[in-house]
Amino acid sequence: MTAATWLVLLGTWAAAVVSPGPDFVAVLRASLRGGIAAGLRVAAGVVAGISTWITAALIGITALVSSNPTVYLVVRWAGALFLFGYGLRILWSVIRAKRAQRAAASAPAVALVPDRAGGGGAAAGAGPGTPGHEDADLGEEDLGEASRGAGSPAPQVGAVAGRRPRSEVWADLRLGYLTNTVGNPKAVVFFGALFASLLPHGIGAGQSVLVGLAMAAIAMAFFASLALAASRPVVIRAYERAETAIDTVLGCLFAVLGIALLPLW
Predict the structure, then answer these.
(1) Fewer beta carbons below 10 Å: N end or C end of the chain?
(2) How many H helices and E strands in the chain?
(3) pTM of the model
(4) GO molecular function of the protein, one example (predicted)?
């Protein structure tokens, strides 16, 4: 491959990567809700999906799929249903969060703090003259909760010593992978056309591997940068202030992307 071919190939690919789409939205939302670790996990899943498409294109599978109308129709329907379903899941989480907020607002705000004497309890808002106030005691965990601001994200349930539950890690990786593969059926045509028009006929295995690694590196660099930017504290605080509105928009966006993939026109 000549230097000009490399430049056109990687330049075209970089432009495609930075174009907002399902991958962009998935990494963005994961970073806003779970921080940079969650964003990087979803990004890694996306890059794994990209690597799958690149491999399939290099060995000719994408050409076979795109040339078979029935297979391509099935792939498009699967992608449409995945994106639409994920959008509905986001919207449903917004509805559940609003219900929980209303339930919490209507519940009586009575909290008991256990005293040292055992068995008894004092109201959390008790003053010095209230029985049990002198014996009221807060453990280290309660002090940690009290020291966090109202806008600070709560610790993840099940996280031990900063480690995420394995199920959560796999869920993020799976989301990124499925968003890029099942949720992106047009990649069949894109990668097939890109490689058919730019890669020389009979390209060797060594150069094929270099092409795949270079494209995966560009994608990972972009999505890692997105995760880093979206997980900054100032950005997360802004997201938390408008979480309902932002998640509603993102959920609708995924649903619309799914509808747009439906092979109805």
Answers:
(1) C
(2) 10, 2
(3) 0.69
(4) amino acid transmembrane transporter activity
